[in-house]
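Hi W., the succinic acid complex you wanted:
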Amino acid sequence: MPSFDYLVIGSGIAGLTFAIKAAEKGTVAVVTKRELAESNTAWAQGGIAAVWSDDDTVESHVADTLEAGAGLCEEDVVRGVCEDGPACVEQLIALGAQFSARDGGSGYDLALEGGHTHRRVLHSADRTGEEISRALIAATRRHSNVHVFENHLAVDLLVDQKFGMARTHPQCWGAYVLDTRSGEVETFTARSTLLATGGTGKVYLYTSNPDVASGDGLAMAYRAGCRASDLEFIQFHPTCLYHPDARTFLITEAARGEGAILRRPDGSAFMLDYDPRADLASRDIVARAIDQEMKRSGWDNVVLDMTGLGADFIRQRFPKISERCASYGLDITQTPIPVVPAAHYMCGGVVTDVHGETAVGRLYAAGEVAMTGMHGANRLASNSLLEGLVFAHRAVEHANMVIADSDGDVPHFPDWTAGDAVDIDESVVIAHNWDEIRRLMWNYVGIVRSDRRLARAAARIAMLRDEIRQYYWDFTLTRDLVELRNLALAAELIIRSARSRRESRGLHFNADCPDRDDENWRRHTAV
Ligand code: SIN
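Structure:
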């Protein structure tokens, strides 16, 4: 039974930041279901928002975040993150992360993105996530106290109360973890556990997220007895590449920050018809505008025109996008890029306090899986890496204090038993259910919702969850089965949250209650 001081589940910015800092005090296990480098963080293009230039202020960053959040951000949390942000970014730089310098080399080049009134996004060209991930992985590997378990997928958390141990307040002591290559489930115990599993993008048919984003942390936390809030606020990124041969690929909002323009396929620009900020309106507005244009005209996509930015600038500032589009035969210096919105970010999540601690003691959540109060009903671009970074620091400081103040041994948990489960003989049922969930979420719980579509989604997901529950007990665990179980639960929680909010606000738009209702609904939903 592997036993550590800290268990970190997930290897994005929040997980590895926590692990590196925790390793100064004790032993750390980092459990990640594929390779360390596979995380939503690594896919981030835009950057990390922080007050960096002399003409910017924390107050301005706070105001922009609150404005995007449509009345549901927790202002004290936002202020704390905006204040702590620059120092945490300095620490990331000290660990080796390199951001793009301004032309001429003095200071960083700060990008502008939708909803920001100042240039404040530090970036590494359009490969910011890759760079942050590279630096954090290198720092993780340097620490002898950090033990990395790749191809290990956490299945469920070890919460003492759930095992009948008498406790006034439930506490988490690790997790059952599936080694996805051997098929064995091991018991990892720890004095402190961090969920840093990212979001649930794969619950939708079209998403900017990597395959790992299957809502595992949200589902585990819910089963462990945590509260989740604001799950109806799923952010759809307005501009993902639309190409028959391409898996959904993000075209960073920084492109619009540099002057790229959304156009109808006939060449006319349309964002000014929807918002005075035009292409730099917040994401909810831009995504809904594109959705409306496509539905009204029957077009499969709109286009993002970067051709006015100049070929040299495009290649130097957006190398990844240039190369990827070129691989599909698209020269973006000459031709507008076909784009569609796709599911991008879960603004709600597992509720935490200002230290990142959940309702279950010794269990922390940071990054996309968490609902700290930072994002409200719509996340401001590039605030997510910042929030994950700041809360990872806070969580580890709090966890150190809890560990230092407590005495006694880690309780004993029984080994996992597979019971009468047999190897699955029909993988097709898993693939079919996975596909069905993603389609129904896209069609019924997408950018524009209605009571009827949500009710249909709820009925369908209830049936699917019954079927999946059966497979879960009948078949030995595989990664696909564990992920499917989590994905189905995440879908159900999103649907329940969307049905409960009887208004439209931020990223949640229900055609049957299209107005914002501050009197009754300026509050979080909870499951
Ligand atoms: C982007 O580069 O447009 C995505 C950044 C973000 O989601 O914050």
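The longest strand covers residues 185-195.

W.
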